[in-house]
Amino acid sequence: MFEVRQKLPPTKAVIVPGNGSGDIEKSNWYRWVWERLEEIPGFQCILRNMPDPITARERIWLPFMESELHCDEQTIIIGHSSGAAAAMRYAETHKVYAIILVSAYISDLGDENERESGYFNRPWQWEKMKANCHRIVQFASTDDPFLPWSEQQAVANELNAELHKFTDRGHFQSSEFKELISVVQGILNGAA
Counting C-beta atoms within 10 Å of the first and last residue's C-beta, which end of the chain has fewer, N or C? Predict the structure, then answer.
């Protein structure tokens, strides 16, 4: 006999930054998004500095996401760059409400630091990610100076992600990100 599980609505978002961000409250759009999501009644957004911020090792970040950030079935994980890789690997083995991937990619791009992170040393488990998430959204830009479009498109294709494709956002390192707020609000409205 199998158990029917009720889909619980999301109660929080967790922002997982890219590597090298240092104090993430002062980096990119992270604080700006956190402030706006915190204004949503009954919803929480978690923004914390990550351990091992330069290399962003999977063996350190994924346990931190589980035990310290408490990413669970009611969590929307917002992952940027290395944080997107962490969100994808996390969703292979954990049920989460949604993952929002910003500047996601599938290989170490020939970079030693990316290789050392551990995210790219085995095949991606795309079907497990899809089974463990109610929604998968991706933000990508064709003019990203670090990620070839083919890497970003591969993520979208493999995950059947709701792709928000831009031509002028680079690596999404601006100080605001209005479209991301709209997507989270849409997810919340759809879950209500």
Answer: N
